[in-house]
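Dear all,

This email documents one entry for the complex benchmark we are building for the journal club exercise. For each entry we list the sequence lines for every component of the assembly. Then comes the predicted three-dimensional structure of the complex as a token string, followed by one or two observations. Please use this as the template for your own entries, and keep the labels exactly as they appear.
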Amino acid sequence: MHISMFNVPNSSPTVAVVGLGRIGLPLAVQYARHGWSVVGCDINPHVVESVNDGSSPILGEPELETGVLNMVATGRLSATVDTTEAVRQAAVVIVVVPVAVDARQEVAFAAVDNATAAIGAGLQPGTLVIYETTLPVGTTARRFRPLLERASHLQAGRDFYLAYSPERASSGHVFRDLRLYPKVVGGIDEQSAATARAFYRSVLEADILTMASTDEAEFVKLVEATYRDVTSALADEFACYAGACGVDAAATIAAANSQLYSHIHGGGPCISVYPYFLLTGVFDEPLPQLRMLIRSGT
Ligand SMILES: NC(=O)c1ccc[n+]([C@@H]2O[C@H](COP(=O)([O-])OP(=O)(O)OC[C@H]3O[C@@H](n4cnc5c(N)ncnc54)[C@H](O)[C@@H]3O)[C@@H](O)[C@H]2O)c1
């Protein structure tokens, strides 16, 4: 365990993970395995009950079922519906509550705004708050920062640390991905970035890439997700063409991917929403050509 590397004044070694879904619950197990005392927070009482019984409500995630069972048995993992109280006790708060797009393709912030209000109500001086949910560029610094400050009567940068770190792991192999991918981190200031880096060093073996700001770290995730969405659409086109020609699309794409510059793969269902995050959000600076393509449905 490397908790001693984490140097937040007046901190107890407790992490609150807000949102115990396909990503949040594996993260909670990962942190507990590295010696932290973890309280998972979720608005769904069935999720909370299941975790407290030592049983994972998420299936199909290697290592998760035994991880939840073992970490609850050691007393290092528990769950609650009371986010505010959990945050009051926490040195670190990790937020992985979903942000999606609505029927009009507008970004739907309601769930994460609610979580942010509950976090702000319990926030204590010296706490580190890190958002991991995929977000439009500018959201951590310009939307969540004022929400947290208003609810807590504390000032980010002076009284608490605030950072953004995109979750790059995918459900179905979260623990593998946590070992594999460098952790991208950006803070609202240098101290926040350094504190977030220290936390991740205590729970991950992967390298850490520090970006200049939370905006830059948010953009990293949108770049990789949009790239995946575009190559996924291209893979679909190639599959249609291969079908018409009577050739094996999977074999052809696999052979093409053996060249360094080809990375054509199918995407997951959530990937296709993230290009919309480049169109709406805190900044009104969409990528013009991308907007044209998405809006025209081509
Ligand atoms: N699923 C993936 O593969 C993946 C990969 C990379 C990043 N992400 C990011 O992680 C986010 C979460 O994804 P997920 O798959 O874990 O979602 P999920 O739907 O599996 O779980 C979300 C959990 O958050 C809870 N929740 C909702 N509102 C809440 C609130 N106000 N307070 C506390 N809990 C609340 C829900 O009850 C649910 O248990 C995504 O929006 C995305 O940004 C997901």
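Observations: Residues 18-24, 41-44, 47, 83, 96-99, 111, 114-115, 133-134, 167, 170-171, 270 surround nicotinamide-adenine-dinucleotide (CB under 6 Å). Residues 1-5, 7-11 have pLDDT under 50 and may be disordered.
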